[in-house]
Design goal:
The chain is mainly alpha-helical and 310 residues long. Helices cover 78% and strands 1% of the residues.
């Protein structure tokens, strides 16, 4: 019940900030997009595995949006759906190979594949635009041609609705039998196999869901930015997702969005006020969270709730 109240307060605060301060509308959208991708990383963390290359699925979805928008000028909603499907298919194929490994090997394999994708995108300049990336015109939404302000408002509500639905689905998944089996990979994978459940299949399904979330976040981010560069799939971007996952905590789906908001706004203001030193600010914030709340913001909120209940 307490987490539900936090979720409702988070949604209300998001809408209030976006409408009261129009210049913050874009950072709010970016935070929601990052939160979706981070939620995909948290799915894997529930299995005790950390991906250091998960930004490749966001990047793949982003470039799918660019190619389709430049070639066919499709509607924005259709672009989001097709790009998310492409990223999900990509994760499905790679997952067949990657889910065989655990621990550092799992993390490094994801990193290796992401760097291969980054290198391909960077080198094939005639197709991908190289390091400059590719831009595209603002697409229609549901058949309507929108001005910039109306477009951003529409995209805000699309991103917020996607975040709410995916957070609900992720939490239901965590509490379901497949989700509990996924968590069992972290605690005792051998016992899971003795029960007659294929750990590889369970992990593959979780990896597929994780790729879907990262792809959805990447497609929304690409449409909001109107530009996609190879940096979207670089290892630093994947590191940011892991950073946000630690910051928000993996105890509940809302942690992905709380962490994403704090990360985006700390970076936004630190970059403006402390040019050249904003990374130090982010590092200090993470250290404070690790020392005060090792389980992230969700763990800290849960600890505050328990004394009140007593």
């Amino acid at each position: 019940m307490f987490i539900r109240l936090v979720t409702v307060a988070f949604m209300a605060l998001t809408i209030i900030i976006a409408h009261s301060f129009p210049w913050l509308k874009t950072p709010v959208i970016f935070s929601l997009c990052n939160g979706l991708a981070v939620l995909g990383v948290i799915v894997l963390i529930r299995a005790g595995q950390v991906s250091f290359g998960h930004a490749m699925y966001s990047c793949a979805a982003g470039y799918t949006v660019v190619f389709l928008a430049r070639a066919y000028q499709l509607d924005g909603l259709l672009l989001i759906g097709l790009a998310t499907m492409a990223a999900t298919l990509f994760s499905t194929l790679l997952g067949l190979f990657i889910v065989r490994y655990r621990g550092i090997f799992f993390g490094m394999l994801n990193l290796a594949f992401s760097m291969v994708l980054y290198s391909i995108i960077s080198k094939f300049t005639t197709v991908t635009g190289g390091t400059d990336g590719l831009s595209f015109s603002r697409p229609q939404f549901a058949g309507f041609v929108l001005e910039r302000d109306a477009f951003e408002t529409t995209l805000l509500y699309v991103a917020l609705s996607s975040a709410l639905i995916c957070g609900f689905l992720a939490q239901r998944y965590f509490n379901s039998a497949p989700g509990q089996a996924l968590a069992a990979i972290k605690t005792n994978e051998t016992r899971l196999e003795y029960l007659g459940i294929s750990a590889k299949h369970v992990f593959w399904m979780g990896y597929l869901f994780s790729g879907f979330l990262a792809g959805l976040g990447g497609s929304l981010f690409a449409i909001a930015q109107g530009l996609v560069t190879p940096e979207a799939g670089y290892w630093v971007r994947s590191g940011e997702f892991v950073f946000i996952a630690i910051l928000g905590g993996s105890g509940h789906a809302i942690g992905a969005y709380l962490g994403a908001f704090i990360f985006e706004f700390v970076r936004f203001y630190a970059a403006a006020l402390l040019t050249g030193a904003w990374q130090i600010t982010l590092g200090v914030v993470l250290l404070v969270i690790i020392f005060l709340a090792p389980e992230g913001l969700v763990g800290m909120l849960t600890r505050f709730r328990l004394p009140a209940r007593r």
